[in-house]
Design goal:
This protein has eleven helices and eight strands. With 285 residues, it is of the alpha/beta class. Strand 3 and strand 4 (70-77) form a beta hairpin. The longest helix has 14 residues, at 97-110.
Length: 285
């Protein structure tokens, strides 16, 4: 089985619609794909309706979190999307994305970059607006060559010249909320140091004690040494290790299935989940 547990659609900051994403996942030879848009589950219904035969969909979301001043992301899988407390927290984070993005546009203008809110809103479309949309605007203007080049201290990285904070969930609260909604929690790309400061291993140990299920070890932003270190840490803490592409369509260079999750780990995730269940494809429209 080929299993990719971290992808994005136009419901947040990907460039594939949810329907296109599941069709592309099937074409890439995946057996299982998780749709984990930022702080939203709005793409799940469309992805489910279009799900090709032979492909299983894992529903989820990537939750924006912050601990001790460090921004991080928590993947939640197979939770009940209507559970009131988790739904309210996702909405709180999502609602703060608009003023935050507007603030980044204002800071870029102060730096002499002629980006406009209308440009960023056009790029985001119906998605949950975020830094990648602002980064794409910088690419369009020729300020940087790629979206990744915008995530530096010079521009949009945490603490960067045009960075603006938004409401982010405490990860211990995110773990509690997701698990109360019947879901499973995995710390996304914990060793992605080129994005900025990373969460210390001691804090990851505290998260494990609080119920964290796993860490995303196999990821494009982890070099071989980092992947090996994270696997060792996971063994020490009794955590699952997943692998994922973090696919964003054409917005990033990663491809579907670039990194995958061991079928035994996937099986354990599905065994632990009680809020929702993987959706087998029956041949969507």
């Amino acid at each position: 089985m080929r299993i990719d547990l971290h992808t994005h659609s136009t419901a947040s900051d990907g460039t594939d619609t949810p329907a296109e994403l599941v069709r592309n996942a099937a074409a890439a030879g995946l057996d299982v794909v998780a749709l984990t848009d930022h702080d939203t589950t709005r793409g799940h219904a469309e992805a489910t309706a279009a799900l090709p035969a032979g492909l299983t969909l894992v529903t989820g979301a990537e939750l924006s979190c912050r601990v001790d001043g460090v921004s991080m992301h928590m993947l939640g899988y197979l939770f009940d999307p209507e559970e009131p407390a988790l739904l309210a927290e996702r909405e709180l984070v999502r609602d703060d994305r608009v003023p935050r993005a507007q603030g980044m546009v204002a800071r870029l203008n102060e730096l002499g970059v002629p980006v406009t809110w209308e440009q960023v809103r056009r790029i985001a479309g119906d998605g949950s607006v975020g830094r990648p949309h602002v980064a794409t605007a910088l690419v369009e203007l020729g300020v940087v060559a790629t979206v990744s080049d915008a995530f530096t201290p010079e521009w949009l990285a945490d603490g960067g010249r045009a960075f603006v904070e938004k409401h982010e969930t405490d990860p211990f609260e995110a773990i509690r909320l997701v698990k109360a909604a019947g879901g499973v929690t995995v710390f996304a790309h914990p060793g992605a140091s080129k994005r900025g400061r990373t969460v210390p291993e001691a804090t990851i140990a505290e998260m494990a004690a609080a119920g964290l299920d796993g860490i995303e070890g196999e990821h494009m932003d982890h070099d071989p040494d980092t992947r090996a270190r994270l696997r060792g840490l996971a063994r020490e803490l009794g955590l699952l290790v997943t692998g994922s592409s973090d696919y964003h369509g054409s917005r990033k260079t990663c491809v579907l299935g670039e990194y995958t999750t061991d079928p035994e780990v996937y099986g354990e995730i599905t065994r632990r989940a009680t809020g929702a269940f993987p959706v087998p494809g029956a041949g969507g429209a």
